[in-house]
## 1
Amino acid sequence: MHCMMTDAGPATLDILDPAFRVSSPQTAEAARRCWCAQTPLGIAVLRYDDCQALLKDRRLRQVGVDHLRAQGVSAGPLFEMWRRFLLNVEGPGRDRLRRLLAPAFTVAAVNRLRPRMREIVHGLIDRFAADGACEFMSAFADHYPPRVMAELIGLPEAEHEQFVAWGKALASIIGYQVPQHLTEIEAALAGLYESIDRIVDERRQDPQQDLVTTLVHALDGDHGELDSEELRANVAGLVLAGQDSTRGQLGLALEIFARHPEQWARLASQPALAENATEEVLRANGVAPIVWRVATEDLEYRGTPIAAGTRLWLMVAAAHDEAAVFGDTRFNIEADRPAQLSFGLGPHFCLGAQLSRVELREALPILAQRLPGLGLAGEPVHRSQLAGFVGPEALPIRFTAAR
């Protein structure tokens, strides 16, 4: 690796160490030393401008099914679902799927869900507001994003909790313990597929304003824009993506606000800060501290030759802490910042970015107003940094109980 910044050359980061954190003094020192670092699994990219440039670079692709193959999973229901999901499709196939799915995630489509989001938020808080404490993930974060996604997709309300359970099982796909969870994942996938097939048949008879109806039209239309396996895979993938990422981000938001109570009080008194607060949470404590990419061809970047097949670990959490870009990087919901990179850029910009942002913008000010005096009631239990989407598995909080 070539680095113009120092004679010492790039540092080495052991990202396989369970104690590794992107937001750590070790990573910050590596970023000061060079734009990149060596890892056991490829090149770590550490700075904002470089992460931004490489996210846009069409010579890089998503990791896709390589992630499963590296763990010994190269066939079977999970492999087939993962290779058909929009996240992992490249080229014309990606453009076709994105065109079919995108209308469900437009600003107008997402804004129609805002009243329902507020209703769900208040309903969940009602269950624990008088208690003065709760385990936030199981009390709130496990339920809010899946219910919103279920509304968007068109999943029956009576089955929401079953879809939550399936989504939690599917979340193991993102991490590095897929073989250990394969039986559980494939059982969830089988249940999900059976339910999707039934809902597809129902929408043929009784169309609704939801994503499944849109996909049924593409499936049954004259142009054959979609096949049944693609429909199943992408609805299943959205159940996972729409549930797990925003769930983790909500937990990370509450955790950082609990450590900055003055910011929580400010959001409660100024709910118009919700949009800025959401972007600052995504920057300072984002659910995707690392974005994975793979080189599709031999290339050179900043004097460093990168062979085809090399994995790049774009450490956006390190980039988000770069003082040369963001100034004072301490958590501040009133700060005016450059754009954060948590949703990616370029051809793989997150399709659900607008939905996730609006879910957070609606939930955070309501939570701030209804849970004053927020603090941690114990240490959070976190996922591994290599789990794709990070965040707390358990987040005990305390607050002033509602009368």
## 2
Amino acid sequence: MEDKLSVTIITLNEEKNITRCLDSIKEIADEIIVVDSGSKDKTVEIAKKYRAKVFYRKFGNYASQKNFAARLAQSEWILSLDADEEISPELASEIRSRIADNRSPFVAYSIPRKNVIFGKFIKYTRWQPELDRHVWLWRKDEGKWKGDVHEEVIVDGKIGRLKYAKIHHQYETVSEFMDMMNRYSELDAQEHVQKGGRFSFPKLFLQPIYNFLVRYFYRLGFLDGWRGFVLSYLMTVYHFELWIKVWEKERGIR
């Protein structure tokens, strides 16, 4: 008998994205779980049209929100998606094939991810699909999200690898990207200080420069055209911003 699949999605004001996401999974999901943290737009209304089970939970952090969604799932397997992601028909077929194989030794599968930023698929600049490969499909009782920032699914067992990538429709504008930088640098700085990390001037100046060189040259960002340069530069700013926030938190400024 084929195992069933629950797709979990956490949302906040995702009406422009969620239809695309739900369309891509409607043929393979036996159950759709949406955990919303207070959308003011039509996100919840759209989700219910796809017969998703919608729950409200105040946002704590990404890991706790996603673990809450996973606990609500009733199927043997869980596929976690963000509302701005979709899966291709090829990936959908591959997922169904793998979870139907009851002889497989794997309790989870990693999936590569294609990132669409500023309107185009970013092939390099450290956004290569294989460099953004993570566990997003796992047996419910074998995995759990961990990490306040850049959360990951940690599983107890063997992890297989899927061939086809899911597609992440990320930032359409520089303003959206910079909003992300501000949110994540705040969380990164807080986590860094909590773990005992310390501010230093060498890190403040050298880490941003190193990040640019890695992304633009070593990871071939120049092959992504102007987007590769802008993304490399913005991530340089991100790391500078991160260490300034660490300095502020150490001194109790924020």
## 3
Amino acid sequence: MENLKWLEEGKRPLDWNGPTRRAFRKFGDEDLDRPIIDHFERVARQYPNRIAVTDAETSFTFAELWDGVSALAESIAAKTEPADLIGIALPTCSMFPVAMLACLAAGRPFVAIDPHCPGNWLSQVLDDARPALIIKREDVISCIETGALKGSRPAKLSVDEPACVLFTSGSTGRPKGIVNSQRNLLQRVAQSINAAHINTEDRFLTLASPCTIVGVRDVLTAMLAGAGIHLLDPQRAGAREILNVIRAENITILFAFPALLRSVVAYAEERVGETLRLVRIGGDTTLWSDIDLLRGWLAPQSAIQLIYAATEAPMMQWFVDDSCRTDEPRIPIGYPLLGNRLAVIDENGHNTTPGEVGELIVSSPYVALGLDGLFRTGDLVRLRPDGLLDRIGRKDRQVKIRGVRVDIDGVEASLRRHPLVTDVGVVVRTNSNDEAVTLVAYVTARNDAQAGLLEDLKDLMRSAPTSMRPGRFYLADKIPRLPSSKLDLPALMAMDEVTVQKERDADEVAVVEARPATGDRIGQIVAQAWQRVLGAPVRGPEDDFFEAGGDSLKAITFVMELERSLGVELPLTLITEAPKFTGLCEALSGHRIESYSPLVPLKAGEGVPPVFFIPGLGGSVARLFPLARRMTYSGAVIGIQARGLAGQDPPHASVETMAAEYLKEVKARQPHGPYYLCGYSFGGLVAFEMARRLRESGDEVGMVGLFDTMMSPLRWPLHSWLSIVGRRIVQFVAEACAAPIHTWPSALRKTAARVGDRMQGYRLTSSLKVTISALRASARYRPGFYPGELTLFSPAGREPGLPSLQAIWSKHARALSVVETAGTHSTMLSSPNAEFAAASLTRRLWASNGVCFP
């Protein structure tokens, strides 16, 4: 790590965009050299009658707290040796600060033992820590009742010796003990006080267990600043009690994890009031929607502070500034803290360039003991131009699904955007080869969530990349979380195993019910392939492949699975022709797949003429499915699949032969006009030729829609070629020059890997033949004249330098109409742009039928 380039530290003061005008006593560098108990004694003697700590049942002044600490410290020192570790097994209550400070006063480090943790977890903690003494509630009560304000203490603990041990889940789920010194804890206190200008008028409410670094930090911050703190167990208290405490105790500073904060604010019926001046958030992914929620709940002058840290090290914080907002749903995690050096590295241990994602590394004198001043966070981040860092996810929560890397944290963040969702947990389901197949989302919701919430979430995720869309959604009573509020992955996986077993039981019944008309072997093969590809079983005979989480890429994989199992070659149209389980089994059993038919129903309809849609170069109608599913036009949507994709027949050699053969099928399906024809890219040439021939034969054509259809690139003007090629070269050179030379080989490997991922799953033999044949056909095609109107659908992100659609088609039609759609040439028919394209096409179809679009 010697050659790493570190990010600049402390470019902004801690209180930037915060309460800069509020008076307070600054915690200086010299204060880091004094033991914690010395600081607490000074405060206790200065403010003896001020309330220090309260809970639902008791309260202590600083003088009473000092009495209890002194008495308990003497008892601890008398029963243990200086090197002994003391266990604190207390709930979240006023007794905890007494026990914590007493251990430090006695010169003994403490280990916090959370009684909420499962029994096996506690057993592992006790086996690893082996405390010499465990402090319980009755021990503290006895010392408080008999204690007296002392002038001396039994021992002193050096600020650089171990002070506390806190157990986290680690990356494996097994308890992992993290040891911090007093100096480390004091540095966190200093940052808290100096950033938020905390003084004796403040009242804390910390909705975090005192067995976490957040709980320890906030207790010590309040005690050493002379402020008060109210301790409340968030696992036992509901949103109503939390809100009552904020009002009754005049809380000024609230800390909460995002998931808990969402439920509290959602429960509130009005603004919180004037006393709450600061909300601090940390420990989990925070969204801009969370900030919006808080802004509506807090008083206008209140501040929001995001704190990003780990038990091993403090790292960064900031007071949220809305002017730094971007389209990214997650808010930045802050600016590097003074005294810390941060670096972002790639998988090879080299510095990333600004904007590139890498792992965050921390070098600091304040990291946990035993880490030699260096902490690898495991968090994936990227540096923004304004100096803020975006957290992208976790290295240990990234998986590859069908060759595409997916960050599960990002999936959870997307689902939390729904206003009725209160918590989310996502797990990965694997196949028999332990390969990630699909994601499964568990969500909790507000009490007033409508019955269609899960369908809403499916719609919400349609705007995300296919690989990020969960294949299944479940509504849960509670998402299992650790006391630190982090997701309890082992518990969530166990919960999912129960769900999987229930589905397996249902699968056996469903397949038996669906099987009679199809034969045992076919039904079993289809059900097994369905399970492998979608990660979920067939539930009944009418299960629809696409409604069960399938998409165009999964459809290709599914057909390939069936091919391998059945030993036959199948057309890619199979799943779109018969997406339901029973229909699919019947199609396979009845050998309906042997003869080629270009017409593939994509959406049912009646009452008005259907629309026929020809896809682009590859010839597969799977590309049209997102558009067809979003169409609200009453007529059917029928895709026209290219010949040759099943590998049984040779591809068409010309646009003219395609048009002639397609028209035979179209007229068999619809003997009389009006005919509605559409084509995407190359498919537009075929649609144009079909329309021209229909008009020549006296048939009525209702509409011709060309989706970004151009002539063959061989016929583009020279200036278009020069413009596009020149821009690509300039872009390539600029990107290469911006990156260090040593990163070029890695970048080339990543590019090659991306290309490989995209090619994965496609049957290159038949698909490539169809594509090459279409390219040759477009180069030879010379369009005639169409004596009607063409509707040109032009994407908003069309590449500069290309010849305009009007210039291309004005000489080949009597009239032109241009409709702008979203996206680029390659994305205009994909989610989320398919929504826009479907609406635009539906309007044109209704208008062609003489109906005003509703």
